[in-house]
Amino acid sequence: MGLEIMHEFDLIREYFTWPSDENSIALGVGDDSAICDIESGYQLVTSIDTLIAGVHFPESTSASDIAYKALAVNLSDIAAMGALPKYFTLALTVPKVDQSWLKDFSQSLKQLSEQFGVSLIGGDTTKGPLSITISIFGWVESGEALRRSGAQIGDGIYVSNTIGDAAFALWQLNNNDVPIKGCLVKLNRPTPQVDLGRALVGVGSACIDVSDGIEQDLSHILKASSVGAKIDAGKIPLTKVLVDYVKKHNDWSLVLNGGDDYELCFTVSKNNQAMLGDISKRCGVKITQIGVICESVGLEIVGAKNIGKSYQHF
Hints:
Strand content: 25-35%
Number of domains: 2
Shape: globular
CATH class of the largest domain: Alpha Beta
Number of strands: 12
CATH topology of the largest domain: Phosphoribosyl-aminoimidazole Synthetase, Chain A, domain 2
Helix content: 25-40%
Structural class: alpha+beta
Order of helices and strands: HEEEHEHEEEHHHEHEHHEHEE
Largest sheet: 6 strands, mixed
CATH superfamily of the largest domain: PurM-like C-terminal domain
Number of helices: 10
């Protein structure tokens, strides 16, 4: 099928219609709206994210990496709520019909959706500057969702895995340097911490995913919970390349403000902290305490100089 004769519905059938084993989907791709059955005793959790070429990913990013990240960042939002992802919709805007690009995009999207058991149930395609919007839907046991507003004085503050790798890769790209492979993978293909989010239900008191920088994202928890916090920059888990960068440049901005980590930042009461060792092992995720919730207003960061500002959309 040539570029000129592929119309919208041909495109949808060719690249975004695949079978699903999800029994709760009563009506999926191909109608005006999707219909899904919600289990009794659960609440619906939904989020939406848009990725725009040149803003959220470099123009040179491959179609497969774009698709992966577009879905992964939405899965990360669901993970931060402690929910189980179930469905998503896709609004895809492309400047032209490039079937090779669409094939790579759809295959990567399908692969990640199957990995996390989340089903594509509808969407829209339009012509214009490249952008991808995904709406994701999941469910969580009624009243059990992790929120930003649950942190209490004395709770420990934790993060998963390491922080700053994605920001370092972007910094290298912006400085015409060849990105370190491991950091570039973190930038283009972050791992949504869905299993960890689920494991924190009933254990964590508040949670957020680190998308815009740990300084800003943790501050969202503090504002929602009406508490303050003190964190030690030296306790933030870093890979060796970030340790070397901070030592060389005396610059903590990539670590504290860089964003794009899509790890979880969460708080846990003293009574529940003993559970974290088992959760770490079961989920295969490193968990590190970086601070504590306190009465003081705002966020105090010790052990860091040259702290910048986290990402702002406007």
